[in-house]
Amino acid sequence: MTTTSRDSFTGKFGVIAAAAGSAVGLGNIWRFPYVVGENGGGAFLLVYILFIFAIGIPVMVSELLIGRRSQKNVFGAFRTLAPDKPFFMIVGIMGVGAAFMILAFYSVVAGWTLEYTYMAIGDNLLDKSSAELSAFFESFSESTAGPIGWMVLFMTLTAGIVIGGVKKGIERYTKILMPILFVIIVVLCINSAMLPGAGEGFAFLFKPDFSKVTGSVILEALGQAFFSLSIGMGVIATYGSYIQKKENLLNTAISVSIADTLIAVLAGVAIFPAVFAFGINPSAGPGLVFETLPNVFNQMSGGYLFSVAFFLLLVIAALTSSVSLLEVVVAYFSEELKMNRKLATVIAASVITGLGVVCVIYDKVFTFFDKTSSNVLLPLGGIFIAIFVGWVLGKAKTKDELEAHGGKARLVGFLMIILKVIAPIAIGIVFLNGIGLL
Ligand code: TRP
Asked: Which of 195-228 are b and which e, b meaning 16 or more Cβ less than 10 Å from the residue's Cβ?
C-alpha cells in the first residue's frame, strides 16, 4: 500500500506555524486565565509549567513521531505500527470522542468571540462600565438564539477550511496572523500593567500560595497543559503525518510548546492585573476574559482598533485550533471508513453543531464536556501514547524517526525513561488523586 499522495506542510515555519496554530487558541486566552483564576493563581501556574516541560513535550514528540512514522490518522497509525496490539486503537476511539466533546463547547466559546468581534466593530463595548460588561456577558451567554447563531457560523467556517485540505487551508492563515496576535497581546499586557491596582494581579499570578494546591488543582493543571498543547487525542499525531522527513520533531515540539506557554502566560499578564483593578472575581469562570478585557480596551488609547483586531484574531486563533480538531475526525472517517472527505466533514460538523446547541442550552453539559475532555480523556490518552512509544515502538525506532531529518537525536535515552516510566506513573497518580481515588 502506498501513501505517497498525502498532503503535507511545506518548510519549517509552515510546520511549526500549523502545529502552533492548533495549540494556540481559546485554550490559551480564554481557558487558561479562567482555570488559573479558579485554582488560586501562582501555585497552579508553577505546576502547570512543570507539566508542560516534564510531560507535555515528551507526549507531543511521541504523537508527532507516531503520525509521521505511520503516515496515517490516529486509528490507522496504531494499527500500522503495531498490528498485533489492537488495544492501542483505544487511543483513536477516545480521540475521536474527545474531538466531538471539545469541539462542541469550543465552538460555543468561539461563537461568543464572534459576538464580541461584532460588538467591537459596532463600537458597542467601549462605552460600558465594568458592571455593565459583566451583566452583558451574563445575559448574552444565557440567551440561546444569539450564541447558537454564532456557533453555527463558526462551525461552518471550520468545516469550510477542512474541506479545502490541509496545506491550502491551515498553513496559509497561521503563518501571518499568529505573530500579529502575539504583538497585540503584548500591547495589552503593557496597558494592563499600568492600571491602578495592577500589583495585586501580578501577585495573584506569580506569587505561589502552596496552601491552595490540592489533588484537583494538580489535575486541572495537567488537564490544562494537555488541552493547551492539543495533545492526548491524536491531533498532533494527525499533523505529524503531514510533516516531511526533513523536519526535526524534537525541536518542533519544543518550539511549539514554548510558544504556546508564552502566549498563555502573557494572556494571564494581560488579564489578572485588570481583574483586580476592576474588582472582578478571579474565579468568575468561563466569562472571565470576556468580562475583563473590554475594560482594558476602554482605558487605552486606540482601544477601538485594538479591540476589533484582538477579537478578530482570537476568532482566527480559535479557527486554526478547531480545524485541527475536526481534521482528526475527518481523517478517521475518510481514511478508515472510506468516506468521501466532503461528506465526512459535513456529517462530523453537523453532529458537533448539534452537540454545541445542547451546550448552549444546558450549562451543565458545557461544563461536563469542558472538564471531562481535559481532565479525563486527554490525560488517559497521554498515558497510552507514552506507553506506546516507550514500550511498543521502542528506543531504536524512536531514535530512527527522531533522526530522520539527518541530524543526531539528542536526549533519546532521557526521553525513553520519561515515556516508559515517569509520564505514565505521574499522569496515573495525578489522575487518580484528582478524582479522589487515591
Ligand atoms: N489547544 C487548542 C487551544 O488551546 C485547542 C485544541 C486544538 C485542542 N486541538 C486540540 C485541545 C486537541 C485538545 C486536543 O485552544
From this structure: beebeebbebbeebeeeebebebbbbbbbbbbbb
Decide if 391 is inside a domain: no
Q: Measured from the CA of 236, which atom of ligand 1 is nearest?
A: 12
Nearest atom of ligand 1 to the alpha carbon of 324: 9
Cα angle for residues 435, 436, 438 (degrees, 5° grid): 115
CA–chain centroid gap for 60, Å, is 12
Q: How many domains does the chain contain in total?
A: 1
**Residue 176 covered by a domain:** yes
For residue 6, what pLDDT is reported?
67
CA of 196 to the centre of ligand 1 (A): 34
For residues 139 and 290, give the distance between their C-alpha atoms in angstroms, rounded to a whole number. 13
CATH of residue 232's domain is 1.10.4160.10
DSSP H helical segments within 234-287, as ranges?
235-240, 249-277
CA dihedral 226, 230, 231, 236 (to 10 degrees): -170
Is residue 405 assigned to a domain? no
User: Domain limits at 157?
Assistant: 12-370
Ligand 1 center to 67 CA (angstroms): 17
Check if the beta carbon of residue 107 is closer than 8 Å to that of residue 352.
Answer: yes
Which protein residue's CA is at the shortest distance from atom 10 of ligand 1?
230
Which pLDDT band, with edges at 50, 70 and 90, does 169 fall under? Answer: low
- Per residue in 387-436, pLDDT (tens digit) is 999 999 999 999 999 999 888 888 999 999 999 999 999 999 999 999 88
Residues in contact with ligand 1 (CB, 6 Å cut-off): 22-23, 25-28, 102, 227-228, 230, 233, 235, 321, 324-325, 378
436 domain-assigned: no
